């Protein structure tokens, strides 16, 4: 819905969609950097405040990754997964504030995130296993079905880009439209249950993107275990 919402950023750069998305993306990055700075500014053995919150987030991410690809790999790929999760979560949440726009409601951004995941897990799969072994994995366990399995696997992996990007974009863009209609039709207090529901959806979409990233990386670097 181009130009559908007033945003505070439009007071600076107008209602042009590119500026709206870029400015809110920069805002989200600034918020993430501020949170990271607050969490690490005065590290304590008994954490509190932002440090406690982000340490819980890191521990939860490691626990999620450990079940899929082991603790060593979960810690190795922790920076990418936590960074993606935090960026997507803040992006989703900022769209719930009237006058702001969720960057993840734009397909260009979600497609960029999906491409990062796609390129990275394939790069890690080739780096860890070698190019021959990695692509041999695409041929399946039965050699005489390799001619069929290889193109199916290639299509399946490419479809992950579409799946990751459109799932996040469709959900958050739909949430934006729902929120717009809700604010137009009902008074101030009545939309609160809708806000809580959209908040839950934002968390859910963040978790889905993170767990799929974990699964894709785990499948790429642990070919033998995957078989």
Secondary-structure blueprint of this entry?
Elements: H1 10-13, H2 17-40, H3 49-76, H4 78-94, H5 107-129, H6 131-136, H7 146-185, H8 192-221, H9 223-226
Note the total helix count: 9
Shape: globular
Largest sheet: none
- Find the count of extended strands (DSSP E, 2+ residues): 0
Question: How many domain modules?
Answer: 1
Helix content: over 70%
Proportion of beta-strand residues:
under 5%
- Structural class computed from helices and strand pairing: mainly alpha
* Series of H and E elements: HHHHHHHHH
Round the mean pLDDT to the nearest integer and report it. Answer: 85
Low-confidence stretches: none
**Rg, Cα atoms, Å:** 20 Å
Measured between the Cα atoms of the first and last residue, the distance is 44 Å
């Amino acid at each position: 819905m181009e130009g559908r919402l007033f945003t505070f950023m439009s007071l600076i750069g107008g209602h042009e969609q590119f500026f709206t998305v870029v400015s809110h993306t920069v805002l989200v990055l600034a918020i993430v950097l501020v949170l990271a700075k607050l969490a690490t500014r005065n590290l304590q053995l008994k954490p509190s405040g932002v440090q406690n919150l982000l340490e819980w987030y890191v521990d939860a991410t490691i626990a999620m990754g450990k079940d899929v690809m082991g603790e060593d790999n979960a810690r190795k790929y922790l920076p990418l997964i936590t960074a993606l999760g935090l960026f997507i979560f803040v992006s989703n949440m900022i769209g719930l504030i009237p006058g702001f726009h969720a960057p993840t409601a734009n397909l260009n951004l979600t497609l960029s995130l999906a491409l990062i995941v796609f390129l990275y897990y394939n790069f890690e799969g080739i780096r860890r296993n070698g190019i021959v072994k990695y692509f041999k994995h695409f041929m399946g366990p039965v050699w005489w079905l390799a001619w069929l399995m290889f193109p199916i696997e290639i299509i399946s992996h490419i479809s992950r880009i579409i799946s990751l990007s459109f799932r996040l974009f469709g959900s958050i863009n739909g949430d934006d439209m729902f929120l717009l209609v809700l604010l137009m039709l009902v008074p101030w207090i009545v939309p609160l249950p809708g806000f809580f529901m959209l908040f839950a959806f934002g968390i859910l979409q963040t978790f889905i993107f993170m767990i799929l990233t974990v699964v894709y990386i785990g499948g790429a670097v642990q070919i033998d275990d995957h078989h």
